[in-house]
Design brief:
The complex is a heterodimer of chains A (117) and B (117). In chain A, strand 7 and strand 8 (75-79) form a beta hairpin. With 117 residues, chain A is an all-beta fold. Chain A has no helices and 11 strands. Chain A starts with a strand and ends with a strand. Chain A has strands spanning 5-7, 10-13, 19-24, 31-37, 44-50, 53-56, 65-68, 75-79, 88-95, 107-108, 112-116. In chain B, strands 2, 5, 6, 10, 11 and 12 form a 6-stranded mixed sheet that branches. Chain B is globular. Classes of the chains: A mainly beta (117), B mainly beta (117).
Chain lengths: 117, 117
């Protein structure tokens, strides 16, 4: 079974530029999460999708961050314009179904390390 | 809101010895899930072990076991017969048993484990 795929693995941009990250979840996983992991901290949820609908985006800085999950499969996270404090690892995770009960495991991708200079 | 605290930033263990990583959490919920994730330098988050709060028996996975103290809101990870491949960052995480937006993981800050040969 293929895991969660993310690209690119690394990205360096200057502040005020824009950047986009791509995530392909495990086949059949309805729920997709984007987490931000700042150096020295644990991951923090940015946005959660159930199929192609947003379940939780309360921690997403909507003035500069946007995300979509067209057709309920792949997802893209965009930052425009980037700030220095956006330097972090962006992790994508997927699970079977967060709307049903049960400890459905979240499977993580390898992450994208973003450096904003 | 739930919080997860890992107060030890770093720990070191001799190969083949046993080490215990500490974690405390705060929640007003009675049913939830607790996890330990391992994050090696490759950044891939790997699930180590899971504990359901309604289960009194501590979870065990090969060399990994937990000491779950629900009343004290404590959830420690014990690694027996430590191996060089165990060196990584370890994160304690909490997940509500509720569905939908409550399915996100809340992580602690993590602990860096080094294994001495």
């Amino acid at each position: 079974e293929a895991g969660v795929a993310q690209s690119p693995r690394y990205k360096i941009i200057e502040k005020r530029q824009s950047v986009a990250f791509w995530c392909n979840p495990i086949s059949g996983h309805a729920t997709l999460y984007w987490y931000q992991q700042i150096l020295g901290q644990g991951p923090k949820l940015l946005i959660q999708f159930q199929n192609n609908g947003v379940v939780d985006d309360s921690q997403l800085p909507k003035d500069r961050f946007s995300a979509e999950r067209l057709k309920g499969v792949d997802s893209t996270l965009k930052i425009q314009p980037a700030k220095l404090e956006d330097s972090a690892v962006y992790l994508c995770a997927s699970s079977l179904a967060a709307l049903a009960g049960g400890p459905y495991e979240q499977y993580f991708g390898p992450g994208t390390r973003l450096t904003v200079t | 809101a739930q919080t997860v605290t890992q107060s030890q930033p770093e720990m070191s263990v001799q190969e083949a010895e046993t080490v215990t990583l500490s974690c405390t959490y705060d929640t007003s919920e009675s049913d939830y899930y607790l996890f330990w994730y391992k994050q090696p330098p490759s950044r891939q988050m790997i699930l180590v072990i899971r504990q359901e709060a309604y289960k009194q028996q501590n979870a065990t996975e090969n060399r990994f076991s937990v000491n779950f103290q629900k009343a004290a809101k404590s959830f420690s990870l014990k690694i027996s017969d430590s191996q060089l491949g165990d060196a990584a960052m370890y994160f304690c995480a909490y997940r509500s048993s509720l569905t939908g937006a409550n399915s996100k993981l809340t992580f602690g800050k993590g602990i860096t484990l080094s294994v001495r040969p």
